[in-house]
């Protein structure tokens, strides 16, 4: 049975090539009617085939999938994540779907890899060898990344209880290929990721940078190459394209997924996940290399405005395109500042922030006062969330989210189970502050824009990957042959944010409590960057915690927790579905358990 999506197999090439940013590497995207064989004599055309995969990277922007978790709600009734959380998530109504783009990207990568060795990359034979190596290394790294995203979104247990992945395809396809392929096991897919990472690491430098003649960093396999040849292929101008460090970070993500409770039947180990993260952290000195301003990466305006040509600040390992806009602010500023207030952090999320002394608010010794709930809290709370009375925007406007507020920013209390709230006002008593630039003005009479970018991988994520895996493998203070432990990572993260470590000290010999703390730090540090939805599932924890808010009465100075939105998930939804359209087309493609169309 041979079926094929003709659109997916249409060969698109990219005519031009620039190197100013990650998403801007290949432009403009155009349809090209030349055949694939044209790539043999046109290196730019060949790069266009690979460039098509770059354009499909899933983390090009923030999905705000937190709306489907206990961390946030949306005031937009049409939000697909809001709908999914309320019980409409099905195999054919799936905001988590990554099948189409990731499978298409792998298709283009396979087309490229099958032909790369025949491409005339350059007249200079040494440069041609280097180009071929680098381009293939990028392709292997990208293929590993797309396989990871497929496993994250579509890996799961079939009707027989076996942990399955997706079909592994490593050769180019055409209309005559067999497309009705069964799924490989999750473990086999992980092996494919590791194999591709190994191939990529053999071909790529750890970073793109200019070297001098006779530099010992020029690999022995390029013996005789001068700096001009090397820098032409591996120089700093290529920053933003996949390099060895990025490949190691992709492998770290995949290893953490495989070792997690929902996927542990794959047989992959926590120690491996810790070691793979450490391969990225050891070269920067472990916790000594942590960026002291990394937790405010989105607000470090001098860094954001200054870097160019694919460069990244210290906190960012890989980033997307830098662009001048005000889109996030238009969506998420409070309505009094001409925003739509779309993403509303929950009381659940606010309660996750400890006190400034580091104690969780529900632990004895924290000093938390329900009558004054925002006093002496973790500084990250006020940095990430607009609280009642916060100053927001270029003019430091005071935002009143209280139920008795006289302007449109206020939270109207629920009445008879109905959420009476304006379409741009908060449903929880909170607005989003993280990710937004406060030097933007949305006033129609004086609108401004500023530079933004989306981090694809942050070093803080890798530190937290290590902390989670190291705690599971060796306990809170175990180092596994490295120079730092899970305890050391969390201590450093707290110290840079101005959070005390008394509570951390009290639990540093308790693996279960350290696990809870690490997961909470991940919740805070990576908030609204698209992690929580996937983390809850790989941890196989409760998905149905009701999203709560706070009704604040300024006149009486009272704070009343309220229920805002219930979550409707079934147990099998720790795994996402294979798209219904694909299962319908291909009878060898077995659906994950629970997602079958009845």
How would you describe the overall organization of this protein?
With 598 residues, the chain is mostly helical. It has a domain at 457-548 and 567-573: Serine Threonine Protein Phosphatase 5, Tetratricopeptide repeat (Alpha Horseshoe). Helices cover 35% and strands 9% of the residues. It has helices at 6-9, 43-54, 80-88, 99-115, 125-154, 186-203, 227-234, 244-259, 270-281, 301-306, 327-332, 347-352, 379-384, 459-474, 486-497, 502-507, 511-525, 532-538, 580-585; strands spanning 13-14, 29-30, 72-74, 156-157, 163-164, 316-319, 323-325, 343-345, 385-386, 391-392, 397-398, 431-432, 450-452, 455-458, 547-553, 558-565. The strands form 8 sheets. A two-stranded antiparallel ribbon has the order 1-2. A hairpin with a 4-residue loop joins strand 10 (391-392) and strand 11. Helix 4 packs antiparallel against helix 5 (125-154) and helix 5 (125-154) runs antiparallel to helix 6 (186-203). Residues 1-32 and 413-418 have low confidence and may be disordered.
Strand order of the largest sheet: 1-2
Q: pLDDT under 50 segments (min length 5)? A: 1-32, 413-418
- According to CATH, the fold-level topology of the domain at 457-548 and 567-573 is Serine Threonine Protein Phosphatase 5, Tetratricopeptide repeat
Largest sheet: 2 strands, antiparallel
Helices and strands, with pairings:
Layout: H1 6-9, E1 13-14, E2 29-30, H2 43-54, E3 72-74, H3 80-88, H4 99-115, H5 125-154, E4 156-157, E5 163-164, H6 186-203, H7 227-234, H8 244-259, H9 270-281, H10 301-306, E6 316-319, E7 323-325, H11 327-332, E8 343-345, H12 347-352, H13 379-384, E9 385-386, E10 391-392, E11 397-398, E12 431-432, E13 450-452, E14 455-458, H14 459-474, H15 486-497, H16 502-507, H17 511-525, H18 532-538, E15 547-553, E16 558-565, H19 580-585
Antiparallel strand pairs: 1-2, 3-8, 4-5, 6-14, 7-13, 9-12, 10-11, 15-16
């Amino acid at each position: 049975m041979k079926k094929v999506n003709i659109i997916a197999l249409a060969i698109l090439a990219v005519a031009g090539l620039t190197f100013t940013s990650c998403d801007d590497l290949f432009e403009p995207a155009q349809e090209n009617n030349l055949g694939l064989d044209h790539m043999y004599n046109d290196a730019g055309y060949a790069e266009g085939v690979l460039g098509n995969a770059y354009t499909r990277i899933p983390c090009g922007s923030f999905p705000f999938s937190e709306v489907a978790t206990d961390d946030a709600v949306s005031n937009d009734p049409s939000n697909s994540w809001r709908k999914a959380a309320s019980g409409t998530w099905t195999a054919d109504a799936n905001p988590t779907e990554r099948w189409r783009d990731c499978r298409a990207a792998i298709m283009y990568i396979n087309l490229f890899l099958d032909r790369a060795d025949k491409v005339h990359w350059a007249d200079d034979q040494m440069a041609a060898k280097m180009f071929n190596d680098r381009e293939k290394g990028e392709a292997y790294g990208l293929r590993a990344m797309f396989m990871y995203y497929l496993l994250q979104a579509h890996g799961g247990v079939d009707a027989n209880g076996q942990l399955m992945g997706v079909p592994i395809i490593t050769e180019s396809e055409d209309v005559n290929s067999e497309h009705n392929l069964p799924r490989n096991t999750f473990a086999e897919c992980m092996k494919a990721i590791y194999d591709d990472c190994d191939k990529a690491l053999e071909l790529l430098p750890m970073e793109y940078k200019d070297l001098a003649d006779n530099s010992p960093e020029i690999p022995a396999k390029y013996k005789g190459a001068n700096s001009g040849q090397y820098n032409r292929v591996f120089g700093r101008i290529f920053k933003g394209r996949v390099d060895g460090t990025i490949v190691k970070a992709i492998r770290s993500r995949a290893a953490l997924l495989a070792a997690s409770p929902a996927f542990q039947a794959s047989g992959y180990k926590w120690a491996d996940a810790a070691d793979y993260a450490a391969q990225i952290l050891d070269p920067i000195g472990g916790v000594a290399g942590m960026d002291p301003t990394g937790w405010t990466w989105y607000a470090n305006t001098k860094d954001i405005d200054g870097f160019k040509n694919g460069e990244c600040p210290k906190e960012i390992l890989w980033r997307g395109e830098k662009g001048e806009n005000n889109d996030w602010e238009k969506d998420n500023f409070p309505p009094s500042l001409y925003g739509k207030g779309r993403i509303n952090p929950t009381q659940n999320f606010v309660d996750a922030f400890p006190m400034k002394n580091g104690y969780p608010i529900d632990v004895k010794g924290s000093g938390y006062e329900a009558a004054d709930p925002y006093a002496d809290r973790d500084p990250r709370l006020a940095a990430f969330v607009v609280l009642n009375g916060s100053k927001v925007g270029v003019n430091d406007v005071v935002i009143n989210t209280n139920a008795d507020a006289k302007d449109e920013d206020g939270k109207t209390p629920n009445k008879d189970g109905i959420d009476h709230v304006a379409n741009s006002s908060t449903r929880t008593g909170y607005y989003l502050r993280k990710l937004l630039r406060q030097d933007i003005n949305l006033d129609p009479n004086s609108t401004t824009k500023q530079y933004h970018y989306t981090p694809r991988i942050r070093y803080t994520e890798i530190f937290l990957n290590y902390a989670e895996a190291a705690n599971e493998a060796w306990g809170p203070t175990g180092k596994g042959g490295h120079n730092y432990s899970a305890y050391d990572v969390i201590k450093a993260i707290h110290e840079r944010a101005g959070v005390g470590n008394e509570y951390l000290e009290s639990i540093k010999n308790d693996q279960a409590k350290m696990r809870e703390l690490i997961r909470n730090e991940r919740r805070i540090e990576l908030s609204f960057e698209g992690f929580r939805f996937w983390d809850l599932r790989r941890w196989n924890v409760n998905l149905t915690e009701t999203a709560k808010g706070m009704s604040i009465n300024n006149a009486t100075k009272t704070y009343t927790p309220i229920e805002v939105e219930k979550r409707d998930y079934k147990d099998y939804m720790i795994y996402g579905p294979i798209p219904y359209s694909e299962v319908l087309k291909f009878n060898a493609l077995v659906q994950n358990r629970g997602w079958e169309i009845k």
